[in-house]
């Protein structure tokens, strides 16, 4: 596996730990309520929604170009934010390493 994939795995595991702690402390709805608590946290929540939307568009285009299944990652992004793009990138890196080394792929 490429170094980038290992970094993505480490980030996903670390973020998973933080998410688990947050879910235990305040619950899923509590995370959303905190995002709506004041103008500062609302700005962070809207920022996250914009970035996740852009990531979903990119995943959709990349999956079509490379003939990958993307819908599980799109649903995961809607439900769990950054986990969708992180896991898509890990899967993408892993599948590129597993692809035959015959003809080069362009595009």
UniProtKB/TrEMBL annotation:
It comes from the Bacteria. Pfam families: DUF2834 (PF11196). The chain crosses the membrane at residues 6-32, 44-61, 73-91. Keywords: Membrane, Transmembrane, Transmembrane helix. InterPro entries: DUF2834. This is DUF2834 domain-containing protein. It comes from Abyssibacter profundi.
């Amino acid at each position: 596996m490429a170094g980038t994939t290992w970094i993505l795995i480490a980030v996903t595991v670390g973020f998973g730990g933080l998410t688990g702690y947050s879910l235990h402390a305040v619950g899923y709805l509590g995370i959303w309520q905190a995002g709506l608590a004041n103008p500062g946290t609302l700005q962070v929540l809207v920022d996250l929604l914009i970035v996740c939307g852009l990531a979903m568009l990119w995943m959709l285009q990349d999956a079509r170009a490379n003939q990958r299944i993307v819908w599980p990652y799109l649903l995961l992004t809607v439900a769990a934010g950054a986990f969708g793009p992180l896991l898509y990138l890990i899967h993408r890196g892993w599948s590129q390493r597993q692809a035959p080394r015959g003809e080069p792929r362009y595009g």
